Amino acid sequence: MSLAETGPANTNSPQLTEADQVARMQRVLNLQRDAHTKAGPPSAEKRIEWLDKAIALLVDHQQAIAEALREDFGHRSVHATLLTDVAGSIGPLKHAKAHVRRWMRREKRSVSPALLGLFGARAYIEFQPKGVVGVISPWNFPVNLTFAPLAGIFAAGNRAMIKPSEFTPRTSELMDRMFRSAYDESEVAVFTGGPDVGGAFSKLPFDHLLFTGATSIAHHVMRAAADNLVPLTLELGGKSPVVVGRSANMDLAAKRIMMGKTLNAGQICLAPDYVLVPQENMRDFVTAAEGAIAKMFSTLKDNPDYTSVINQRHFDRLQGYIDDARAKGAEIVEINPAHENFTQQPFHKIPPTLVLNPTDDMQIMKDEIFGPLLPVKTYSQVDEAIGYVNDHPRPLGLYYFGSDSAEQERVLTRTTSGGVTVNDVVMHVSMEDLPFGGVGPSGMGSYHGVDGFRTFSHAKSVFSQAKNDITAMMRPPYGEKIMKMMSSQIKR
Fold first, then answer.
1. Is 269 a catalytic residue?
2. Annotated catalytic residue, options 187, 269, 290, 432
3. Most buried residue among 47, 66, 106, 465 by CB atoms closer than 10 A?
4. What is the tens place of the pLDDT at every residue in 124-139?
5. Can 235 be counted among the known catalytic residues?
């Protein structure tokens, strides 16, 4: 019997008042910090034990996770959940387990002046656990964006307090039971609840806080963290552009772009948000996109592989984007291979929809879409596409399709984004040895792999002086020796 069916008593009961939750959060923070101080930096073996427990939870509860997410979304592809939230979380944890011993080693640095090294002085970086890390995870990939950061958090030797999204309550409750079955509260604790609980959580004096979510909410999280000067990592989003070059294989580009746009119904922080194609290739892209969808989804309405929009509010928001774009002159291309009627449905599914020739006064071009809608703009020269990207806030991801290496280099060097995938979309996030993060409005800081270990560690500088009294000349009374040393340094 899985923890989806049974488990320890839930101390996150909805009957708890907000004041009770706040009091519990402060108590657990004190508990974890005291445990961290008393135990000292955990050994590699202990960190690997924490990582192994997380891996085991995902393996043992994979079906319960898929079912909880299917119910939270109304419908979510079980296979997509196993790909993104289960396997996609195990990968980072295993990567950290394989490398944590090497990451923990002291990093030698050179001493200056070099003469000190000859007499035995040493300099190095000691990677020290920060202590207690708060994690605020979102609803779109609630398991992955809780467990994947734990790879770096545990590898760095920290304890964790987690606030999952209230938009996926079944999954949040399941994760609470899972963690309580494997970890002591002094190691990991989960706090469910709504915005009030999340607001109180973000005000706690953590040793580090990771927030993954909307840029609009990040402003509030950053203000709350500022009161305690809590170091922050913000993983946000933005309107990630796709630049399709004239040298691109249009069919292959469309297949990969539409895969990225329909995975999780486009509810991905890295989903392609709009496409820039050469003017003469607009209709070729539309035809290729229609063919790509037809091949992936012969039907949509009852197709178990096609995910629903999370709730009515987001469904209405996306429908509003379509209505606004149509009213302002955009051409709307609904890709609906079986010509199904979506006005009567038990879920909140929206067919993949292209919005052709959108203008910047349309709401769909102002907000991050987070759904299966894809604006398609045209350009005559690639510098127009580059200029358009640069005229807007820096995105979390940027995608280039083409075989023209000079054009590729121009697009990548003349634009700034959190990360880039060339000839595909989204995939750079799955590279465990690449840091993942945004820039400016799309985020602050990064994690994954060794970069995650370093984000959640304090890089403590240590200098060990030589035993010889080599610095005697630096103490008064000053004389010719120090003047000779200064003259050797104060020069061009």
1. yes
2. 269
3. 47
4. 999 999 999 999 999 9
5. yes
